[in-house]
Amino acid sequence: MEEILIKAEKRQEIGKGKARRLRREGLLPAVIYSKGKATHIKLQKREIGRLISLGLGEHALLKIELSNGDGTTHDHHVLIKDYQTDPVTDELLHVDFIEVSLKERISLMVPVMITREPAGVKKGGIMEQHLREVEVECLPTQIPEAIEVDAGHIEIGHSLHVSDLQPPEGVRILTDPEEVILTVLEPKVEEVAAPPAEEEAAEPELVKEKAKEEEKVEKEEKEG
């Protein structure tokens, strides 16, 4: 994935009130963390918000061109460490960046992308995906957008494991190779409910009356 350039400025405004004012101006308060040092910055909220909404921000290498306020700039290669959103409006409120060295390997989570539908699903099976991300180790310049895997050969009753993944050159997978990515299950068979037992037909009234007459006659004969 190519690095993404973002322009930012150092900020002196620190505190909730000043942060709200920045947001009203379309800016976003943020912090760059680097070896125990925190640099407070401000950047265009729309720009970083778009990256996060597209799902790119958490896996992308960003280059922040930071203006020092004196006409000079300094580049920081960063990853998004964390971000905060409003629980009601989902508005982006704050972003934390972590600075990385382009020469040092890092570990992070990247998505797993299934490129073909399993053969078992085409035959009526049900796919259950258990793992959607894996941890990898690589240089910041080698971070993949995703690790693709072809599941087209997976039949009903079979699974795809982390060991089946083929990472790009320079990328090492750290997740346990025995972990299951997806399984194709047998199709569910709906149980057919047994028909309700038929109730015995009610005895016709005439038959009942006849039985009562016979019982009466039989009783009179015994008494007589």
Describe the structure in your own words:
By secondary structure, the protein is of the alpha+beta class. The chain has helices at residues 16-24, 45-53, 119-122, 205-223; strands at residues 4-10, 27-34, 37-44, 62-67, 73-85, 92-99, 106-116, 126-129, 133-138, 147-150, 159-161, 172-173, 180-185. Strands 1-3-2-6-5-4 form a 6-stranded mixed β-barrel. The chain has a 4-stranded mixed sheet with strand order 10-7-9-12, with no helix packed on it. A 3-stranded antiparallel sheet has the order 8-13-11, with no helix packed on it. It folds into 2 domains: 4-99, Ribosomal Protein L25, Chain P; 106-185, RNA Polymerase Alpha Subunit, Chain A, domain 2.
Keywords:
224 residues; alpha+beta; Ribosomal Protein L25, Chain P; RNA Polymerase Alpha Subunit, Chain A, domain 2; 2 domains; 6-stranded mixed beta barrel; 4-stranded mixed β-sheet; 4 helices; 18% helix; elongated
CATH superfamily membership of the largest domain? Ribosomal Protein L25, Chain P
Q: What would you call the shape? A: elongated
Oligomer: single chain
Number of helices: 4
In N-to-C order, the SSE pattern is: EHEEHEEEEHEEEEEEH
CATH architecture of the largest domain: Beta Barrel
**Uncertain runs with pLDDT below 50, 5 residues or more?**
none
Number of separate strands = 13
Distance from N terminus to C terminus (CA atoms, Å) equals 112 Å
Structural class: alpha+beta
Radius of gyration, taken over Cα atoms and rounded to an integer in Å: 35 Å
Number of domains: 2
CATH hierarchy, class of the largest domain: Mainly Beta
Per the CATH scheme, the topology name of the largest domain is Ribosomal Protein L25, Chain P
User: Considering DSSP H and I runs of 4 or more, what fraction of the residues is helical?
Assistant: 10-25%
Percentage of β-strand residues: 35-45%
Largest sheet: 6 strands, mixed, barrel
Arithmetic mean of pLDDT: 85
Q: Order of strands across the widest beta sheet?
A: 1-3-2-6-5-4
